Amino acid sequence: MPPSTLVRSEHDVLVIGGGVAGLTLALHVAGTRRVTLVRPASDDQGASRWAQGGIAAVLSPQDDFDAHVADTLVAGDGLCDERAVRFTVEQGPSAIEWLLSLGVPFTRDTSPTANYPYHLTREGGHGARRIIHAEDATGRAVLDTLKHHAQTHPDITIRDDLVAIGLLADAQQRCRGARCLDSRGQLQELVAGDTVLATGGASGIYRHTTSPHPASGEGMMMAAELGAELMNLEFQQFHPTCLYDPDGPPFLISEAVRGEGGRLLSTDGRRFMLELDERAELAPRDIVARAIDAEMQRTGSPHVWLDVTHLGDEAIRHHFPTIHAHCLKRGLDITRQPIPVVPAAHYSCGGVATDLDGGSSVPHLYAIGEVACTGLHGANRMASNSLLECLVYARSCAAKLATQRGPTTPPTASTQPGAGVVEVRHVQQWRTALRDIMSRYVAIVRRDAGLDTASHELSELSREVQAAFESAAPNTALASLWHAVRLARLTVLAARQRRESRGLHFNPDCPPHTETGLAPRPSRLHLDDLFA
């Protein structure tokens, strides 16, 4: 599109991403500042909606902050920022009270011995029942409630016709909004005083994921292009139990299924977790995912079994109505048959490095939710701490934004885009190649030789994609792929630099961190590190 037809508009607070984090921030900022929320329709199928299990928070009188903090630190395998963990945990109860005030339909506990009005379940890594949930579809319930309130708020403008492909900066390298493409493929510049990324993680750089429309690190790389620091990219969590169905769409089998007594069995009938960890099926996700991966290799099977039939028909239908109904549609009655499950890319523990207010290293650029790395998760995320993090940091970021106003300097001129055309099939082929490389060499178990191969193959792929990106007219699919390829290269770089096995980064060529004697350290990278 010629530069003369570029559409530019002015905004106060620009939020990119409309999952739980983005909507929560918008609702808290509105009233003190005007909010523009760029929320494509695909956000309704993002990670927030598929968060089945619930939200971890200290709500029961039998629970306490120290216990939740301790469990999180153990799951994070020595790499959590304890200050961030305690901050998140202590803000949990008030965040849940806010959701209740909005009308989120959490499942009530009607038993006569209940000591809290809502049912609390337990999931992997937690030493107590502290997961509040809306049946087995918590993400959907929270998202729908927040979206309803945002759509009716006079200070929130929702733009569902735009997709962000890059960020704007002024001469002082302060963030000044975003470059977007509208539904006709035309460029629009949304100039903003403050910009908040809530774009999700990077599980989309892998072949098998737990979400039908996973993010591929687009927000992380948009921030990195402005100089933001990225942290802990090597820690990509694979959820242990995704429904195995090669011919159907991804579907997560919630951690709560194991929390209520589900048992993992190899295809030859062995309950293998009992031998590996005293917590058995409720061990942290990195341990369970590696165990499943090992069993699949031992038996040569493409899956293991998750069996809940012993819980009984009534309990299964009561606790897991969504999972039960979905599996029935796929020809599987979980009250009578075990569920075939396989690990799948689920959650990025790394991302844009932020402080407790969501602030990045770039002035007036914030990141919240899965796109951010707050230090809460360390080397492995504990179940149901993710929605908690979305809520807590959206609220703290909103409080920060309420006290300031962004700069009014104009952004620097954008580079004139190319005019070429890239065939859709080429973009699809490149993305498939990217996912195959990452799934083969940079997944649950990595080795030095595989990481070296991945680095080489991604470098070659990057050159092809870059040439197309720089010559082609603006294209959302190609822009997403260009972000994804560079994020994958940085992920491999982070994995190669970590010379220990810790949490989600398991490399048999490196000793466990308990044997190295090295102090725990986060990995920190910038985009320029790809060219060092």
TrEMBL record:
<comment type="pathway">
    <text>Cofactor biosynthesis; NAD(+) biosynthesis; iminoaspartate from L-aspartate (oxidase route): step 1/1.</text>
</comment>
<dbReference type="Pfam" id="PF00890">
    <property type="entry name" value="FAD_binding_2"/>
</dbReference>
<dbReference type="Pfam" id="PF02910">
    <property type="entry name" value="Succ_DH_flav_C"/>
</dbReference>
<dbReference type="GO" id="GO:0008734">
    <property type="term" value="F:L-aspartate oxidase activity"/>
</dbReference>
<dbReference type="InterPro" id="IPR037099">
    <property type="entry name" value="Fum_R/Succ_DH_flav-like_C_sf"/>
</dbReference>
<keyword id="KW-0274">FAD</keyword>
<dbReference type="InterPro" id="IPR015939">
    <property type="entry name" value="Fum_Rdtase/Succ_DH_flav-like_C"/>
</dbReference>
<keyword id="KW-0560">Oxidoreductase</keyword>
<keyword id="KW-0662">Pyridine nucleotide biosynthesis</keyword>
<dbReference type="InterPro" id="IPR036188">
    <property type="entry name" value="FAD/NAD-bd_sf"/>
</dbReference>
<feature type="domain" description="FAD-dependent oxidoreductase 2 FAD-binding">
    <location>
        <begin position="12"/>
        <end position="387"/>
    </location>
</feature>
<dbReference type="InterPro" id="IPR003953">
    <property type="entry name" value="FAD-dep_OxRdtase_2_FAD-bd"/>
</dbReference>
<comment type="similarity">
    <text>Belongs to the FAD-dependent oxidoreductase 2 family. NadB subfamily.</text>
</comment>
<protein>
    <recommendedName>
        <fullName>L-aspartate oxidase</fullName>
        <ecNumber>1.4.3.16</ecNumber>
    </recommendedName>
</protein>
<comment type="function">
    <text>Catalyzes the oxidation of L-aspartate to iminoaspartate.</text>
</comment>
<keyword id="KW-0285">Flavoprotein</keyword>
<feature type="region of interest" description="Disordered">
    <location>
        <begin position="503"/>
        <end position="522"/>
    </location>
</feature>
<dbReference type="GO" id="GO:0005737">
    <property type="term" value="C:cytoplasm"/>
</dbReference>
<dbReference type="InterPro" id="IPR005288">
    <property type="entry name" value="NadB"/>
</dbReference>
<dbReference type="GO" id="GO:0009435">
    <property type="term" value="P:NAD+ biosynthetic process"/>
</dbReference>
<feature type="domain" description="Fumarate reductase/succinate dehydrogenase flavoprotein-like C-terminal">
    <location>
        <begin position="431"/>
        <end position="511"/>
    </location>
</feature>
<dbReference type="InterPro" id="IPR027477">
    <property type="entry name" value="Succ_DH/fumarate_Rdtase_cat_sf"/>
</dbReference>
